[in-house]
Design brief:
It is a single chain. By secondary structure, this protein is of the alpha/beta class. The chain has one domain (3-282): 3-Layer(aba) Sandwich (Protocatechuate 4,5-dioxygenase, Chain B). It contains ten helices and ten strands. Strand 9 (261-271) and strand 10 form a beta hairpin. It is globular, with a radius of gyration of 17 Å. The structure holds 3,4-dihydroxybenzoic acid and fe (iii) ion.
């Protein structure tokens, strides 16, 4: 059977993708940030997933404002790298897992989550930057990816509770798939940042670190935080953090099992206009 073995959480700042693509990670501005991912790269090469269920948001690149699914699942065999205006990032095409995705779609919809089925889904920096942060610059990504896209762009956005519940549904879906697969759940976006208006550049270290504390130790309490608190405390784009609750909901402790182990935790300011946060949780052995 398939099983969830770990969850990974990371910001997806597009400028970090550009730094990797252009070989600039050793520059003084970037070095401390990429140093924070070295332990995770070592860990993931020792604990490679067969599939990553990658929870991310599109930034009006593949999903425009004509139709806005709250939750969508990528069911295709392959996902092209989106052109965000400067040509696609020079990274490998993302290979899906159509069998697992079809099973997850069936299972999750029957658990009463109305997923939109995305049979064609170019993937933007929200999905490709986390892959690059964790895997570096391989010729091919070392695992398949099932994208789960969450609307955090256009209000109303889903609540933390709904996101945690989707994670629980993802766990049940994965655990009822017959193939022998190690599956990671990744939550991406955040941390505090605001890209526009008088508060552009907002960073809230105290709130971000409390979010990390509670994501580890009190996910159910954290899931009750209303979206207006994210926006007030973490800026208009800080709402991306609600997606981390989807990945957290997929861990065993939310299904009555033991708490996960913290493999790695990292927080860094600045990266472009944002605070960068990163966490790796592994299921208890
Ligand atoms: C920036 C951060 C994001 O998360 C994003 O999606 C776009 C831009 C930024 O810091 O510039
Ligand atoms: Fe973003």
């Amino acid at each position: 059977m398939a099983r969830i073995t770990a969850s990974v959480y990371t910001s997806h700042v597009p400028a970090t993708g550009v730094a990797m693509d252009r070989g600039r990670t050793g520059e003084p501005y970037w070095r401390p940030l990429f140093a924070g991912y070295e332990a995770s790269r070592e860990w993931i090469s020792a604990n490679p997933p067969d599939v990553v269920v990658l929870v991310y948001n599109d930034h009006a690149n593949a999903i425009g404002l004509d139709m806005i699914p709250t939750f969508a699942i990528g069911t295709a065999a392959r996902f092209p790298v989106a052109d965000e205006g400067w040509g696609p990032r020079p990274v490998p095409e993302v290979v899906g897992h159509a069998g697992l995705a079809a099973h997850m779609t069936q299972s999750i919809i029957q658990q009463d989550f109305d997923l939109t089925i995305a049979n064609r889904l170019p993937v933007d920096h929200g999905l490709t930057v986390p892959l690059s942060l964790m895997f570096g610059q391989p010729d091919r990504w070392p695992c398949a990816v099932v994208p789960v896209a969450v609307n955090v762009i256009q209000y109303p956005v889903p609540s933390g509770r709904r996101c945690l519940g989707l994670g629980r549904a993802i766990r049940r879906a994965v655990e009822s798939f017959d193939d022998d697969l190690d599956v990671h759940a990744w939550g991406t976006g955040g941390m505090s940042h605001q890209l526009q208006g008088p508060r552009a550049g907002l960073i809230n270290r105290a709130w971000d670190n409390a979010f990390l504390d509670r994501l580890v130790a009190d996910p159910e309490g954290l899931a009750c935080v209303p979206h207006v608190e994210y926006v007030r405390e973490a800026g208009s784009e800080g709402i991306e953090l609600v997606m981390w609750l989807v990945a957290r909901g997929a861990m065993a402790d939310l299904a009555g099992g033991p708490p996960p182990q913290v493999v790695h935790r990292f927080y860094h300011v600045p990266a472009s206009n944002t605070a960068v946060g990163h966490l790796v949780l592994q299921e208890a052995a």
